[in-house]
């Protein structure tokens, strides 16, 4: 219903992002990782108990599926530009935040503290659900699609209305940007036959030389107005370049730093795995038993070789993603900068 009522103005299967688009995807990725840790913590705790306790990991498993469903649901609503259907997510985040808060308060009442990993994970989930709820309420505030008399009308950009523009990287979701999924069309076409400029299509407006020239010229004129009494030279040009293209270069540097920091995770995880396997006894013996089940600490959780192996996989995956993102942003910014000059 939403797709049929709102895709009449554009020719591409995407749209402008809702407010907080990137933040929502980042929070969802973090939420999925924390839920995986909660599932693993429940399985490890259940393995050292005398009897089975499905409630230690089954709710976290259901929450993991719900988080995936929520982001798929959001993506389809966003590409349909039908924000009224987001009201379902508003109710879900509200209920999830309330129930996790109740669970966190119950832990506090029963003497569970920061020394237990489950307490820390529950606290993180409360914060994440609260932030996702805030993002959802911000969409309502900006788009005014519900609780307001006049909703905000959003027109599709010129790039999406032009069939000649096929470079849709600015308009795809964060996951597609990180995995370059949006390039599959070009890859399939190039696999079948050699591609030419007509197949590639026109550049989007933001990447055209004229657009970047105007951006650089405005920054240069601003530098001239600030220092009208001093002679102009290469220093003003460098300042103008930093002002016009400094943010994407800073973003590229940030991605590279994060990738280099994650490079330390590999040796640390491998060292922990070798150390734990070398001991010959990988069984956890937690000392804390509350509410009839064992509550393991972070140190006891990380003494499991299987947990370290999973963490190693996620760390390497995230490292390569940040590294490729750094290369992409730097190359794209360099092209825009040369075009402007």
Automatic annotation (TrEMBL):
Please provide, in alphabetical order, the Gene Ontology terms of the cellular component aspect for this entry: membrane
* Membrane-spanning parts: 25-44, 56-74, 86-104, 116-135, 290-318
MF GO annotations = ATP binding; ATPase-coupled transmembrane transporter activity; sulfonylurea receptor activity
N-terminal signal peptide: none
Under the heading InterPro entries, the entry gives:
ABC1_TM_sf, ABC_transporter_C-like, ABCC8/9
Tell me which Gene Ontology terms the entry assigns under biological process. potassium ion transport
Does the record bear Nucleotide-binding in its keywords? yes
Alphabetized, the UniProt keywords read: ATP-binding, Glycoprotein, Membrane, Nucleotide-binding, Repeat, Transmembrane, Transmembrane helix
| Top-level taxon of the source organism | Eukaryota
PANTHER family from the entry? Answer: ATP-BINDING CASSETTE SUB-FAMILY C, ATP-BINDING CASSETTE SUB-FAMILY C MEMBER 8
**Homology family:** Belongs to the ABC transporter superfamily. ABCC family. Conjugate transporter (TC 3.A.1.208) subfamily.
Q: What is this protein called?
A: ABCC8 protein
Organism of derivation: Leptocoma aspasia
